[in-house]
Automatic annotation (TrEMBL):
Keywords: Isoprene biosynthesis, Magnesium, Metal-binding, Transferase. Gene3D superfamilies: Farnesyl Diphosphate Synthase (1.10.600.10). It holds the Pfam family polyprenyl_synt. It comes from Kitasatospora purpeofusca. Belongs to the FPP/GGPP synthase family. It comes from the Bacteria. Its cofactor is Mg(2+). This is Polyprenyl synthetase family protein. InterPro entries: Isoprenoid_synthase_dom_sf, Polyprenyl_synt, Polyprenyl_synt_CS.
Amino acid sequence: MAAARERAAGHRLRFDLRFEAYFDALPERLDTPPLSRFTPRCLELLRDLSLRGGKRLRVALLYEAARLVTTDPVPGLAEAALSIELLQTHGLVHDDIIDDAPLRRGGPSTYYAYRQEFPAADRTALGLAVLAGDLAAFLSMRVLLEADVPAELRHAMLEVQLDAGAETVAGQIVDLERDLRRIPDEEFLHTVCEYKSTRYSVLAPLRLGLLAAGERLGGEEDARLRRYAIPVGIGGQLRDDYLDLFGDEDSTGKSTGADLRAGRRSYAVSALLAAADEEQRAVVESALGDPHCPAATVERVRELARRLGVDRKLRADMRRCAEAAAAEAGTWRPHWREEAVAFFAGLPLANVVRP
């Protein structure tokens, strides 16, 4: 587990330098209206959000996927990594608009940064935030076109990212549908997780890394990736939902209780509603969807969740997902390089126990 963490940290350090260089060069490379003041500010906010933290696990998955095949330098990986993280920036900007979230990664969300700049022009702030997210999505695809790889590979990588982007939007739609169900069942929650995050955060980086390294992704190879990606994605979402209710703002960089205030039937909230009796459920539902829900009420709900064992259930579910993913990675040994397989086997449990 420690080795997986160390390798992931190395990928993050190297990528962050590359990401910073990308944004340094972007104003000169992007043809923008010369008299506009808003366009440079949009690029500044995208840069700020993109460089302001993030675990870069997608980047680690990408590079280690290529190492399943070879330790040689692989053309196209740098551009694929930029594409992955730009698509993530797009998702964060739009998620924060949908969720009306003031904080992201320890600072103001892009939407709230614009709201602060245009306090008397709500529609302008909203429009600029939407367009900032759109720009990040287009840049995500554009950067892949700059990869110095054969046209056939470039097309295949673009197809992976375009599919991932479209599926993520579909996931965001079903995410909103989930919140209109009183208590979503586990199967529905898993579906939301797969489309909203797993396919672009886990499956797409794995596919891109293997494609760049020259691996053909036939039916069995892709099935292996899916069997790994699904529990990794669910485990990651379980952890995010756990921290939203049981974590603290200093460690997460987001407001604690945000899911509760936004009315999101997350894994944590759904587990709490399912475990509660009618009286307890009424307490939770009185806070659910109230954007002005006070911290004292969030704490009351949190203590109720602890009494009902929701925290223990979520931790147990996270561990089961991690163990399932690690077991799947173990079956890769006859097919791919041992060193990289060991990384994928160790990473899920490392994420469960990390701070």
